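Complex 304.
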Amino acid sequence: MQRTRKYAVMAAALATIFSARALAGPEAVPPAATPFHVGAYELVSLRDMAFVEPNDGKTFGVGEPESAVADVLRKAGAPTDKIMLSVDALLVKMPGHVVLIDTGLGPKIGGDLMQSLALAGVKPDAVTDVLITHSHGDHVGGLVMADGKSAFPKAVIRMSKTEWAWMQGHKGAATIVRAVAGQMKPFTPGTPILPGITPIAIPGHTPGHVGYQIESKGRHLFDVGDTVHSSIISLAKPQWAMGFDNDEQQGEASREKVLAKLAADHERIFAPHFPYPGVGYIVKKGDGYGWVPDLKPAVDKTGE
Ligand SMILES: [Zn+2]
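Predicted structure with zinc ion bound:
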């Protein structure tokens, strides 16, 4: 019964993401590319879209009163009737490789990752490796163009073996699976897959969800994927159930464990759904955590 309900919640979330139907859902944003460094590697935070989720108890604070969720938002100075999420991806340039981590919602839904990539001076053909944190539509949608063809035809595409198996079982993902199957090289998390890039298993949000540890010359950045979603609620109340998590209990356990470690280690992170550009630190705050951004969005030189 429990499992059936979880699957239904997940299926609904996926359907929403893949069809972009919704009261709430994806909203267009201007493209943006914000560069920064990790050791000798040049990274770029790439903007794709935004999500606006209503505070209706279905996604954030599942099972909690709406007023409790509103309280957390109010204390952070945010609107109390909706939760704003960014949808971003991360580019890593290293000798011999141009690596894209996650791909946004895709041009069919209105995602402008490709324009952001152009702002970063990178053509799709130049991407050598695409690493996926998990197979939800806001991370794999951009693997294909609006016509369904592979968006990064020269890249090796990688996700965990568990996630690839799970993705292939979802009808909503069939077009993408078909388009990229020949490029897919799934991995077992825990060992480096590129110089300085190691996938770390963080199950719960999806069965094969991973974060990516990036290291160069002793400097680190951890792409947390969807371990957290809202820079306000996911951090203030990590113990609250998250409707997008396939397994809410495992998602919560993973979230608390990862946040505790990130705060203790003062580790710099990239969070694809935190306010753009999504780079900063997790700090202990009260009985939860807080967000300290550490990178300002690049100014759009066109002045728009
Ligand atoms: Zn996501």
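The longest strand covers residues 41-54.
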